[in-house]
Design brief:
The chain has 69 residues and is an alpha+beta fold. The chain is 22% helix and 46% strand. The radius of gyration is 11 Å and the shape is globular.
Length: 69
């Protein structure tokens, strides 16, 4: 099973973004999603699927933390 994770966009160049996942920075493709630094996004398999609100990203991160505990 694969899971999409929420992260915060740090930088955008061409069609790639650097996304921060609790201190882990990963490059992800932007595809057709229009994003800018500071946006929260949902990433799966190196691709940004959609933008999220900060509240939604925080709630998802909390749920994943509880599952891992």
């Amino acid at each position: 099973m694969c899971v999409a994770l929420p992260g915060k966009v740090i930088d955008v160049r061409d069609r790639k973004a650097t996304v921060d996942f609790n201190g882990n920075r990963v490059d992800a493709r932007t595809g057709f999603v229009s994003i800018k630094p500071g946006d929260y996004v949902l990433v799966h398999a190196g691709c940004i699927l959609q933008k999220l609100t900060e509240q939604d990203a925080d709630e998802m991160t909390e749920i994943f933390s509880e599952l891992g505990a």
